[in-house]
Automatic annotation (TrEMBL):
EC number of the protein: 2.5.1.16
Gene that specifies this protein: speE
Enzyme kind, highest EC tier: transferase
Annotated family: Belongs to the spermidine/spermine synthase family.
Organism: Streptomyces niveus
Name of the protein in its database record: Polyamine aminopropyltransferase
One GO process term, biological-process aspect: spermidine biosynthetic process
Compartment(s) of residence: Cell membrane
Domain PABS: 207-453
Cited PROSITE patterns: PABS_1, PABS_2
Length: 525
């Protein structure tokens, strides 16, 4: 019985973590989604405990039916959530429903198990409770570790949830039919056996069809032009177009590159920072190679170091014909090298070995921060005062830092918090913006080409204009937002465009905002 308690507790925690992971992926802002899911589930567990009092007189059959229902709902939760997002464009209500229903069923387990275990245990009530909760907590530990280290990498979110449901229904059904079978009437045994077989059949059928489902859902989300869809150790990477039609690159469902106008973003990010010395350039993020493409257009550049978290993105940027053509094969340039690391950890290590500091032996003339928007929770530390303090240590004297800071028109508080954070780290700042045609770079998921499923700042249609916000910074003084005398010929950027971008950003200015730090992040998701 304690072994079954262990297994059921592990399965229950996997369902919780599955909902948190999917909510963060489909909706965005992992802190908010985790808080919503976990608080709803804990609340529902209390309701389930109260409702289970009505089943204690028939605890065996009640527990068997509860486990069957839990296995069915938990096992199918990932499929249903992804389906509602892909075909309906919204998964919040389904998420709330699953959080409450799974919580109620998990909450009903303990009272029913207490009733059952007291029938076979010779211990006093206190010893029985201790054994029950020990098995429950250890099972939760195993389930919590199995989810990120076993289920996700080996089976993925959908198959992992289905497998967990199958284990859950087998464990619950075996306990009731084996140990307490004599307590059941013939009709109850038949009912439980039928329900368990049906649940296993549904889960097995879903597992057989899961690949077809993924392909259909992916087409519904990204369109029919999906060429590459891979799940790396870090994120889901999807490429659409590139052979027929413009190339789009999605990372975890967020549009990161649109061939239609990526040049507007990358030219605005890179070229104002290249005014001044630029022999050594550091790019944080930007594994697609497009920021590096702009940097390497300057003949005075001697070396470019790119720090990228995900080797899978870099591998695609090097080997995919369409993406490699778009970045002009920068990965083959002898001046270009890649280091795979978290940008924060990498900068911290550079400072630790004494490579950083203004004028230091390892100093860079230009640092370009081509990172996701700060509203995406995992990237918040990369927009903190501590991060910019580390960046200042690898800048040469008079070196410049260019930061992608999110859309000032749509999220002015986030944008100007980046500016305030840079100033608190000792930088002088010069904010500016650029306009584009393709919606993207949103803080929330943005998977729809026509904008119907777009989140974040990409809610308008495909033809709508969006703004990208940047901050150019230099230690001690604000740098001029101008083009270098040796700037190459650009497709979208010119002095009048930069002047208009400065005014566009200034019109959204918010003053007296506090900086964001590691212990007190200020960015809203």
């Amino acid at each position: 019985m304690l072994a079954v308690v262990f297994v059921c507790a592990a399965c229950g925690l996997v369902y919780e973590l599955e909902l948190v992971a999917l909510a963060s992926y489909l909706i965005g802002d992992s802190v908010t989604q985790a808080s919503v899911v976990l608080s709803l589930m804990v609340f529902a567990m209390g309701l389930g405990s109260l409702l289970a009092k009505r089943l204690r007189c028939r605890a065996a059959v009640g527990f068997g039916l509860v486990e069957a229902a839990l296995a069915l709902l938990g096992g199918l939760s990932a499929l249903v959530l992804y389906a509602t997002f892909a075909w309906m464009g919204e998964s919040r209500y389904a998420l709330i429903g699953f959080s409450l229903s799974i919580g109620v069923l998990i909450g009903a387990e303990i009272p029913l198990l207490m009733t059952l275990i007291q029938r076979v245990s010779r211990q006093d009530a206190g010893g029985t409770v201790a054994d029950l909760f020990a098995a429950d907590y250890v099972g939760a530990l195993v389930g919590g570790l199995a989810f990120p280290f076993l289920l996700l990498p080996w089976f993925g979110q959908l198959t992992g949830a289905l497998l967990t449901g199958a284990v859950n229904v087998v464990a619950g059904g075996a306990l009731v039919l084996w140990i307490f079978g004599r307590d059941l009437t013939g009709r109850e045994r038949g009912l439980l056996l039928l329900v368990n077989v049906l649940v296993l059949a549904v889960l097995a059928t879903a597992a057989v069809l899961v690949d077809d489902f993924e392909r259909a859902a992916r087409r519904a989300v990204y369109g029919d032009g999906v060429r590459v869809a891979v799940q790396t150790d870090v994120q889901e990477v999807v490429l659409t177009g590139g052979v027929e039609g413009p190339l789009d690159l999605y990372l975890d469902g967020r549009l990161r590159v649109s061939e239609r106008d990526e040049h507007r973003y990358h030219e605005a990010l890179v070229h104002p920072a290249m005014r001044g010395p630029h022999a050594r350039v550091l790019i944080l993020g930007g594994g697609d190679g497009l920021a590096a493409r702009e940097v390497l257009r300057y003949p005075g550049v001697r070396s470019v170091t790119l720090v990228e978290l995900d080797p899978g993105v870099a591998r695609l940027a090097r080997t995919d014909p369409a993406l490699a053509a778009l970045n002009e094969h920068v990965y083959d340039d002898p001046r270009f090298r890649v280091e795979y690391a978290d940008a924060f950890t990498w900068l911290r290590g550079r400072g630790a070995v004494g490579a950083g500091g203004p004028g230091g032996s390892g100093a860079y003339d230009v640092v370009i921060s081509d990172l996701p928007n700060p509203g995406i929770t995992p990237s918040t530390k990369l927009y903190s005062e501590e991060f910019y303090g580390l960046a200042s240590r690898v800048l040469a004297e008079g070196g410049r830092l260019a930061v992608h800071a999110g859309p000032p028109a749509v999220r002015p508080r986030t944008y100007w918090t980046v500016d305030a954070t840079l100033r608190s780290a000792g930088f002088g700042t010069s904010p500016y913006a650029a306009m584009g045609q393709a919606a993207g770079f949103g803080t929330g998921p943005n998977r729809s080409h026509d904008g119907k499923n777009a989140g974040g700042d990409a809610g308008a249609g495909a033809g709508a204009r969006t703004d990208w916000g940047f901050v150019l910074a230099e230690v001690g003084r604000p740098p001029a937002v101008e083009l270098a005398p040796d700037a190459p010929r650009l497709r979208s950027l010119a002095p009048p465009v930069l002047e208009a971008g400065i005014l566009r950003a200034e019109r959204t200015r918010l003053r007296d905002l506090p900086p964001s730090t590691l212990v007190h992040p200020r960015y809203a998701g």
